[in-house]
Every structure is written in structure tokens, then in C-alpha cells.
Amino acid sequence: MALSHAILVSLLDRPQSGYDLAKRFDQTVGYFWKARHQQIYLELHKLAKLGWVHSETVPQRARPNRIVYAITPHGQRALDEWLRLPTEPPNIKEELLIKLFALKPANLPLLLEETRRRLCAHRQRLAQYQQLMQQHYAQPAQLSLRRRGHYLGLRMGILIEQATLQWCEEALQLLMPADPSQSA
Amino acid sequence: MALSHAILVSLLDRPQSGYDLAKRFDQTVGYFWKARHQQIYLELHKLAKLGWVHSETVPQRARPNRIVYAITPHGQRALDEWLRLPTEPPNIKEELLIKLFALKPANLPLLLEETRRRLCAHRQRLAQYQQLMQQHYAQPAQLSLRRRGHYLGLRMGILIEQATLQWCEEALQLLMPADPSQSA
DNA sequence: GGCTCCATGTAAGTTGTTACATGATTCA
DNA sequence: TGAATCATGTAACAACTTACATGGAGCC
Q1: Half-sphere exposure of A52 toward its Cβ, with a 13 Å CA cutoff?
Q2: A2-84: CATH number
Q3: Contact between the CB of A128 and strand D at under 7 Å
Q4: What digits encode the pLDDT tens for the residues B86-131?
Q5: Which of A114, B46, B69, B74 is deepest in the core (most CB within 10 A)?
Q6: Which chain C positions have some atom within 7 A of a protein CB?
Q7: Which helix (H) or strand (E) covers residue A81, if one does?
């Protein structure tokens, strides 16, 4: 049920088409919530049936028409009710951890390599997030309330990436065969 | 496809029934991968059909029979192939962040309260993880390779909880209305 | 008498993924 | 000439959740 609510929240900013939403989910929101365009279109149909959004077709020349959705007062109320529900801590679903549970000498090199690869990937992501942070949220205390919410999303992304990076480094330390030429 | 692999990995330790697996997924493994018993039974049936596990019925007096599953050589090979596939960084799916995207004065108190609640929940989890760590993994460098894998799972849990805790504290700081009687 | 544990499952529904489909426009 | 962008969708499948079902054993 949460993707539909994520869509509603995104529509609070401004009316958008499914295409717009999909692009946005690929960027900012997508750091912590992924959705493909197919799923978004399906949810929009459902939301329209529920009367939580209302759609308007915008004709275009030489392009498929855009169908732009806006949140309705009914949708607003539904959203407010949802906000009142308690949240569950998310679970991590980290495949690499499962793989490490199968650790044995034969696949140690493989898993070390994969951990190194992930380390690089997370470094890149972190750098990207930090750049966004500098560009858009340099002084969080001076932001509007709405934008503080956005800031906190990005901030969570940074903290999680940092934690993951540290984990990767520790894992490599722990699993790397000690090299005698390096010690002492 | 990852739950079936998580089950295979768990069966590496020893043959287990669906019931055993469900209990284990509620404990150690469950810190980063949840599964209900229904899902586990379904996956076991699938795995049996694929020939990746083989089952043996253990009759019991005055109790339902246990069906104990063990990994087969074929399952071993499938697992080794899966280990070779690259892993994706998991995505967070944190509902609270979506809710904060809908931040406005009217629901600020609500979201502050929820953040406080989550702060407590994560503190408790962290304490629990740290206790397990002390009990079972006091000296990680001296563990067997297999147990180092388990250690790293728990370690990830701790790092994520710490990051989340810090985030909660920062969020409260940022969103709490400044109380004039506290400043200066 | 009611609760939890043991132990397995079916059925229905929701959510999300992958594959497939269309078709003009713009850029290299 | 080929790829990417714009823009919407259907169909099949995989993964996961929720509800329901059974029934004895042991505990308080």
C-alpha cells in the first residue's frame, strides 16, 4: 500500500503524469523507494478508481497525450489517515549477507571481490548524495518545513551509505588473508 | 529468488524442517531477511521439485510428522552459481521518509511523535544486537571462516541501527520547535 | 479453561518484476 | 542508421502477506 501513498505525496508538490512520476522515482525519491513505470501506471489507475486522484488528458502534437494526475480532497484525507498509522522499521534484504553466510575457503576470493565491488559502488553513491546535499541543503536549519522533510530523506541516504561503507571496509579487513609482508 | 537461496544456505549448516527454518528466520537470519512459515513451506516444495533439496519424513508420536530437508549436490551447484552473480545494493523502503516528504505544520506533532517512537524501537534493537555480539562474537578475528560470515551479518545490523538512531536524533533536533526557555 | 508450542499446509489477494507493444522526434 | 526521449500501456509471472484450517501436548 505504500507506493500509492508515495505517489500521493509526490502529487502534493504538483500535478504530474505517470511519466513524470517515474522519472522522479528514479531520482530523489528513488534513493529509498524504487518503482518502475508499469507499476506506477497501475497504481495511478487504482488511485483514480478510488477517487483519490483525478486525471486530465493533455493533448500534444506529434507525441502521445499526457495524462496528468492531481490529488483530490478525498485523497488528501486518505493521506492524512495513513500518516497516523505507525511505521515499521524496514528490513534490509541484503543479498550479500546471505552469501557471506555460505562462506567457505573455496568461495572466499569470489566474495572478497564482490565486497570490493560493492565498496566502490557505495563510495560513488555517497559522493553523489553529498554533492546534492551541498547544492541544495547547505543550511538545513534555514529550510522551510517541507524542504526539511526532503533534506531528511537525503540525510538518511548518506548515513546508510556511510554505515554500509564502513561495513565493507571491516569485512575486507576481517576476511582478507593476512599478508605476512605487510605485518610488523 | 533470494529466499530460496537463503533457505539453501541455512540448510548448509544442517538438515532442517520448515518449522525449524521459520524459527531461525525469526532469529539470526531474520535481522536482514524476513519470511513467514507459509512462504518457507512453499519455497521448500519448489526446491524439492527442482531437486535442490531432498526431504525425509520423520514420524513422531502425538505430534504432526516432521519433514526434514537437506541440500542435494545439485542444490550445492545451484548455490555456487548464484554466489557468482553480482549483488545489488538493497533499497531502503522506509515509510517514515515518505511521510516526512508530506511534512506540513498540521502534521508536525504527529511525525515528531512517530520519530520518537522509532528512536526507542531502534535503541532496543541495537541493545539486543550488541548483547548477542558480546555473547557470541567477542573476538571476531579468532572465529572460523563460516562464523565470520555470521558475525558480519550481525555487524551490519548494528551499523544500520546506529545510523538509523543517529538519523532519528538529528530529525528530532531539526524538527522540534525551538523552545525559547531552553536557549541562551 | 485458555494459552502457547509443535507442525503442516491451502487460498486469496497484493505488490512488484520482466517481457512485450506502439510510434513519432531528436540527436549523433 | 541507430539510439535515446517522450508517453502509455497489457500480460505473465514471481514474491510476499493475510486469513483460514487442523489438532494434540503441556503449562498456569
Answers
A1: 22
A2: 1.10.10.10
A3: no
A4: 999 998 889 999 999 999 999 999 999 999 999 999 999 999 999 9
A5: B69
A6: 6-11, 14-20, 22-25
A7: helix A73-84
